[in-house]
Amino acid sequence: MVMKLVLLLIICLLCLCLCLTAEASTPLEYLVKPNCQSQCGNVVIPFPFGIGESCYLNEWYSVNCSNTSGAAKPFLNPTKLNLELLNVSLEYQTVTVYSPIASYDQQKGSSELQTSINLDQSPFLFSTLDNIFVVLGCGHAKLMEHEKIWAGCTSINCSDSFPDQGCYGINCCQTTIPTIDSYYLSTYSVKFTLDDEGNNHSTSTHAFLVDRDWFSRNFTELEDVSVKYAALSLLWMIKEGDNADSSCNGSNYYSLSIGSYVRSSCGCPPRYEGNPYLHDGCDHVVKECANCLKTCDYRYIIDNQSYHIEYYCITKDRLSRPLILGFSIGGGSLLLLLGSFGLYKVVKKKKEIRLKKRFFKRNGGLLLEQQISSDKVAVEKTKIFTSKELEKATDNFNLDRILGQGGQGTVYKGMLTDGRIVAVKKSKIVDESQIEHFINEIVILSQISHRNVVGLLGCCLETEVPLLVYEFISNGTLFQHIHNQDSDFPLSWKMRLQIAIEVAGALAYLHSACSIPIYHRDIKSTNILLDDKHRAKVSDFGTSRSISIEQTHLTTLVHGTFGYLDPEYFQSSQFTEKSDVYSFGVVLVELLTGQKPICSTRSQEEKSLATHFILSLQESRLFDILDAGVVKEGEKEEIMALAYLAYQCLNLSGRKRPTMKEITMELEHIRMSLPPLKVEQNFEENACIEMEIIGPLDSTSSFRRSCLNYPKASSSDEQPLLFNAL
């Protein structure tokens, strides 16, 4: 944050330096009369020129902004001259206009003498300083004023090609106009002379007066014979009849006699710039003087037959003022930034506190505090974490800390300040209508104390979505160990059986040993974690529900995972403890076969592992689908007993499935290689299984009924929970 502040300060100081060193320019609105148009197209039209009534000094300075050609173009004095205007200079009192090019066709016998545009009685004169005389084509031409020849030019070795290398005498020549007697022409004419050698390679010759700068930039444009105009520089002046002195509006007034003309002009006082022809038009200090602490002086610099004024400070401390100003503004800006930053932090902190309180209340924090305050055990076991604690624990929920992502949220690995490694689950959504129920479950789950259930350590409710903190289990999921077996640590038969016993015991504890039964609702191998001793831990109670005794849970939205989903629950939306039993049966089949619950490579009917398993039992090919390690290490009687226990768990009718307590007891008997338990008959002789038929993703899953004939027990009153077929 400090680096950002320093960077911002540097940027401010750079901007300040740029502002202090940038060239001053007079705003356009200060160059024209009030409420007058300041430019036409990209040409600025300063007073005494103007667009519209009352915006110009007199009719000679009127400008018409025309849009007939699709782009705005200004035309000078449309009633008498009507010349396209290219530029207006107040400093040099010049305008640049497009003027017609004189052409002479030697073969057609055109007139040898052609006159220029008529500037009679106007305040405009042809400038001899800014213009040059050019001849294009074959022959000779003279620039004349009345009978006096001012300049001449001859092009030699004529050809039809355009002189691409420039105008140096071959098919094109140029010459300057002497300024010994005068630097203007009131009028001029062009006189063409035939080529003495009669070399008529070119059909016509062109001669014209042209602005020297424009000609050097646009020489190649003249190759097009259809071009009939070239830029011409004209001098302009305030004539005596225009009350020139009063036109200066208090600015400096200059008057110069030029032959029969008196050229009057206005100028801004030293150190100021702007438009001297407007009232208070010279109120902008020139940039060179703006930084002077004392006097600003000036001198005239003559360059290429023109002159300009150069300003300079007469003291050596010319940089003191900008430096002092820069440091003052910089220091003030720094204080302003620091003050603004401090205020921003205070406002942001208060906003965060208000937001956290709102989230805490919305997520049921007040209800949770109320419930645990009356229970000492709940107070000890249910910790309410702050968002800062969990942000620090997870390195601000760094993506590198993600342990897994699912439909309910994302799980991050974290370390608390006391050194404990935890798993922090960040939910995706929160259902405000279920907040009270959610808080009740937090209290219940935090009090669960079973070695095979992942412990809920606490929660954080002052974030947008609730955060749940669980103990961290380091050895991955059962799914990973089954389907991505490490050759160094494969799951042995005894380990598989032990995991099944531990998961069954945990579910039996949740279903019957808790004060209120808890249904998991999403039992699957990815929700069974293994610690470093391969001890099973049931996790992810994101969809679990606590149910009052003798009640079932009816929901409008089916929760669970395809391949593990109870068909009875899928059809009725009524979840019971036997729905967890069905899902556990699929996990048993996974342990036996090492296959995934859904497999796209099997036939349409057997994509579901449960269906594939049942059909294999029916067709007496169970051992064909078992995991090689299971067949190698397990006793045949134990394998068959576990297979038929899984078969019972997958029964179509939930009430005919064994309870998790009965399953746990039977698994213990299988591990000790004892004969099957004989319990009160709970199953029909012909037990039927509904097989889930997995269709395409865009179709609805269907179910098919399958029945097995069990051998009868030795007693008519008793029937084993499991039958030893072999």
TrEMBL record:
Protein name listed in UniProt: Protein kinase domain-containing protein
Catalytic activity from the UniProt record: L-seryl-[protein] + ATP = O-phospho-L-seryl-[protein] + ADP + H(+); L-threonyl-[protein] + ATP = O-phospho-L-threonyl-[protein] + ADP + H(+)
Source organism: Vitis vinifera
Membrane-spanning segments: 323-347
GO terms under cellular component: membrane
Keywords: ATP-binding, Disulfide bond, Glycoprotein, Kinase, Membrane, Nucleotide-binding, Serine/threonine-protein kinase, Signal, Transferase, Transmembrane, Transmembrane helix
Coiled coil region boundaries: none
Alphabetical list of SUPFAM superfamilies matching this protein: Protein kinase-like (PK-like) (SSF56112)
Subcellular location: Membrane
PANTHER family: WALL-ASSOCIATED RECEPTOR KINASE-LIKE 10-RELATED, WALL-ASSOCIATED RECEPTOR KINASE-LIKE 21
GO biological process: cell surface receptor signaling pathway
Membrane topology: Single-pass type I membrane protein
InterPro entries xrefs: Kinase-like_dom_sf (IPR011009), Prot_kinase_dom (IPR000719), Ser/Thr_kinase_AS (IPR008271), WAK (IPR013695), WAK-like (IPR045274), WAK_GUB (IPR025287)
Domain Protein kinase residue range list: 397-672
UniProt-listed Gene3D superfamilies: Phosphorylase Kinase, domain 1, Transferase(Phosphotransferase) domain 1
Main location: membrane
